[in-house]
Design goal:
This protein is of the alpha/beta class and 422 residues long. It has 3 domains: 99 residues, Nucleic acid-binding proteins (OB fold (Dihydrolipoamide Acetyltransferase, E2P)), CATH 2.40.50; 182 residues, Vaccinia Virus protein VP39 (Rossmann fold), CATH 3.40.50; 82 residues, no CATH class. Helix content is 23%, strand content 28%. The strands form 4 sheets. Strands 6-19-20-18-17-14-15-16 form an 8-stranded mixed β-sheet, sandwiched between helices. Helix 4 crosses helix 5. The longest helix has 17 residues.
Amino acid sequence: MSPTIGSPSNLPPEPRTLNPVNTLTITDVPYGGRGIGRLDGKVCFIPGVLPGETVRAKITRDRGDFLEAEPLEILTPSPHRLKPTCPLASSLGLRSFSEGGCPGCCYQHADYEEEVRIKNEQLRNLLARHTVELLAPVPAPSPLGYRNKMALHAQADGKEMRLGYFMADNTTILDVPACPLAAPPLNAILEERRRDPSFFRTLRDGMTVTFRWTEQDGAQWWRNRASEKDVWLVESSVIGPLSVPRNSFYQMNPAMTDRLVTAVQERLKADLPDTVIDLYCGVGLFALAAATLGIPKVLGIDLDGPGIKAAEHNARKLELKNTWWKAATAQEGILDFELEHPDRATLIVDPPRSGLGRKLIQEILKHKPRRLLYISCAPDTMVRDAAWLKEGGYSIRTSQLFDLFPRTAHFESLTEFSTEQS
């Protein structure tokens, strides 16, 4: 006999209440650095874990479509797991995630080879909808001691003054006596400052203290923004010494920056253009690298006026007369530029993490240079932009990871687009 409609056997099952503590197997670590496990059909994001590990984790949030959890115990560790170098790292065996360790280094618990493999798979997966040749990743010579800059934040807590990085809540400052990612001279000057009681008395809540190092200038520090009158710093680079105003952008990993610059030059030399436009050129790094190849016309565009003045200065010092510079937004700069021969032009872009965006891409498509070299510190927004570029007739030829930010969730990539169908 069929059950009567509305009887208990026909009612929808009671929603299952998730246990706060569960055992999960980590299947992947996508971009951002948190591992993925699955619980009752839902994706569960867990920091501090590696692919293949079995973990006991506590559910901290149910976001509806997915869950978030904190690892409590690694039941089956990955062979690539190791003890973090930094005592402030948010990883098992040190500070727990709920206690709020430093969120910056999400791969301190992995050997470096595995970190690079994970990041390369992240880039591969993000580009899955495109036909692209993924070139071998370029690892850093060292995963530690590479940063030429630290920006630490001051926060008053009663009578105590903390100086360090923002924690995961983006509000609380974690006091940082030393950072293993920073170049040794930066940690030395930080230790010296912290030993001086008068230094902390000069700090105010919300103040930023920048520590900067170059091979020529040594370790320097200043509060908040440096004065525009301060002497420019000089960075060593594969194309020669480059002057950098203290408030202007320069890549924080000099050794890996040289590898990235060399890769850009190799892409250009493979098919030398007549014209190169470098959007977001900063102090001229990639534009100058192009100009050293003898390309007839190189234009650099950046909103940072002091950076453009430094680019002009750098071009004179390097005796490069084939460069032109413009202080403007990327969109304003591209609007004012006319390409006589788009088929013989290459556009280099190195945007912030927000990417190019649809409006700028629409302007680029009006000019449509044959080749576009996209340098990105945020592969998710680069892939978003790639979809819009594809709509406009571009396709991806190659993409390659450059690990400028070891131990963190971030990496740089160099992706070559072309209007020519391969």
